[in-house]
Amino acid sequence: MTRTIDEATLGRAIVRHCSPTLAGLKPASLFTFPGDFSDHGDSGARCHDLQQAIRVCARQIEPAGLSIHVLAWRSCGALVYVYRADELTSYLTDPRAAHPLARIGYRVDSLDACLETLGARLSSMGGSARRKATGASEPCPCAQDGCCRDFPHELGFFLGYPYADVEGFIAHGGRDYLAVGPWKVYANLEGALATFARFRRCADELRRAHQSGCGLMQLAVATPR
């Protein structure tokens, strides 16, 4: 699927997928902007158009401490990451995230280096041996509801999920969870369910406000420094 690539379309996607981050409830969100953004055909024009739209949207939310970055370009879509650098840095430098990330090769002293490593891992996972060896592009094995490629298990740290739940996900390989919502729950079930409900209310409120004419600049909340 390829959709129109412009500021308005990207803005709607950001509100739909990143409302808790816009509202300051979590440090980061990630979503797939559909389309073929691989390295063949006319995908270069699509990459350019999306980057242009990102620059426009980024200027609107930057005053609130938010940034937008494409972590990986795939033939099924671009992985667009919306994050609060200060809050994310604080979250990742906590030993509960820093120690497991350092063990698998992340430079936890640099947010930019961490995002570069995460992007490389997202780009490489799920491809065939030929693609990894030659750099050749091939379609992702995707279903209608999203990309079927694997995601690195540490991704939950970069989305600000509770440390115990990310650790549980890694330890159990994504199985044996207590509940599932925006993430899989392995500890503090009651607290997680309350957070899921809070996220849903936030998404509904921001979507209605956006549909009523509020732009990203008005929806993005500046958090205390």
What report would you give on this structure?
- It is a single chain.
- The chain is α+β, with helices and mostly antiparallel strands.
- It has one domain.
- It is built from ten helices and five strands, in the order αβαββααααααββαα.
- The strands form two sheets. The chain has a three-stranded antiparallel sheet, with helices on both faces. Strands 4-5 form a two-stranded antiparallel sheet.
- Helix 1 packs across helix 2 (43-61) and helix 1 runs antiparallel to helix 9.
- The N and C termini lie far apart (40 Å).
- The relative contact order is 0.16.
- Residues 126-141 and 143-148 have low confidence and may be disordered.
List keywords for this structure.
single chain, 225 residues, alpha+beta, three-stranded antiparallel sheet, two-stranded antiparallel sheet, 5 strands, globular
In short:
This protein has 225 residues and is α+β, with helices and mostly antiparallel strands. The chain has helices at 7-22, 43-61, 85-93, 95-103, 111-124, 129-134, 155-158, 163-172, 189-211, 216-219, and strands spanning 28-34, 66-74, 77-84, 179-180, 184-185. The chain has one domain.
